């Protein structure tokens, strides 16, 4: 039986790995989109079902809040900080996957808002994946959406992300028994 602290460490490693992998995938795909798609226009991948079409977005989904880029940036910083703070307490690997995906997606779009044009903290997010009847999106958006769905499912099923007080007592008893 692993202790709470061992489970926390495994989950923290998973969260960090997933977040960094998604951040790298998101930023490399955006680099490709800016480099390759900006000059080519729309590319049909699966007819009109899936297209690659470079655009930028100063707002949130559906370009909501396009005049509030700085507020979206600050909100993303707060969400990232909250995820990092609570990540240390996660003991369930399913929650670790959700947190890692959410953190990776938020950091992907946040890095655009911080470093891309038009200026620091007011940058526009690069979007390039287009499907019918939906706004153009990116890898970070997919990570946020899928992680949000996973977290909603875990909440619905009442699966707890953190160790309870009773779990902590069991771990202490296990540790004391091992020392005796």
Key features of this structure:
180 residues, mainly alpha, 3-stranded antiparallel β-sheet, 5 helices
Note the gap between the termini. 17 Å
Provide the structure class: mainly alpha
What's the arrangement of strands in the largest beta sheet?
A: 1-2-3
- What is the CA-atom radius of gyration, in angstroms? 20 Å
- Whole-number mean pLDDT: 90
Strand % is 5-15%
Q: Any idea what the shape is?
A: elongated
Give a verbal description of the structure.
This protein starts with a helix and ends with a helix. The chain is elongated, with a radius of gyration of 20 Å. The protein has one domain (7-173). It contains five helices and three strands, in the order H-E-E-H-H-E-H-H. Helix content is 61%, strand content 8%. The chain has a three-stranded antiparallel sheet. The protein is mainly alpha-helical and 180 residues long. Strand 1 (43-44) and strand 2 form a beta hairpin.
SSE blueprint and pairings:
Elements: H1 4-37, E1 43-44, E2 51-57, H2 69-87, H3 93-115, E3 125-130, H4 139-156, H5 165-179
Antiparallel strand pairs: 1-2, 2-3
Helix pairs in contact: 1-3, 2-3, 3-4
In short:
By secondary structure, the protein is mainly alpha-helical. Helices cover 61% and strands 8% of the residues.
